[in-house]
Amino acid sequence: MSAPDVVAVGGGHGLAATLRAGRGYARSVTAVVSVADDGGSTGRLRAAGDRPAPGDLRKCLVALAGETSPLLRAMEHRFDAGELEGHAFGNLLIAALEDSERDLVAALDEVGRLLGTVGRVLPTTTVPVQLRGVVGSGAEVRGQVAVARQPDLDVVTVEPSDAPACPAAVAAIVGADQVVLGPGSLYTSVLAAAAVPGVGDALRGAADRLVYVCNLRPQASETAGYGVAEHVAALERHGIRPAVVVYDPATLGEAPAGLPVRLVGAQLADPGGGAHRSDLLGPVLAGLTGADWRAA
Questions:
Q1: CATH number, domain at 132?
Q2: What global pTM score does this model have?
Q3: Residues spanned by the domain of 91
Q4: Are 190 and 10 in contact (CB under 8 A)?
């Protein structure tokens, strides 16, 4: 295949690693990002005015930015005093443009233009949503921060349950040559994105092009004790069966035989490292499409 059109779905630092990897082999890269976060600067902005969470959108815009610039450096700047203490400038910029343009997608496209991004960043939905988690006992917890602290998670959904998917995000998934889920927090990033009904339906329709990248290690509470099999089972509880699961055996352990997916084990981080390296992840993802990897 020639350079593919790639869509990466999820949130947080993990999705940013996939986006940087995609820049090394894709013709186009689009991020479809969860907006259910309610912690930190994002949580304060949501409390001040009901809006989709901007924090993960900001991280993805930075990952796709062109040349280093003062604005790019400012996007990740956090104020350390006064009423703005703890706020990331990029979150404020996205929120301000969303208010002035009355359109979150238009606001993200404008920030992308200012940063010279090499791809597009889209929200899973343009309406405010709250993450809802159900544990094995049937008990419920609400809010992304609370769900992340909860062991024995079974499924996650978003409220309102009929939150409309961003049409451009759905179109990007439907038209992609490769759709990459993650890496990132399984329930509060990856499945939080898939929980928006239209996005989940698009992912199920793209099953033959769908690649899931496992986190490097279990996360305290959220995925405590998880190996590859538990990740696959969690995806299936949400109706998602990827064609390929990529993982790092050195950090997550060997996957058991008999799982109903194609497994690709590869080094994805430095020994003892806590984060995916884009220059290691990129060639693996490129190889799945037959595209050439071009190191930055």
A1: 3.40.50.10680
A2: 0.94
A3: 5-289
A4: yes
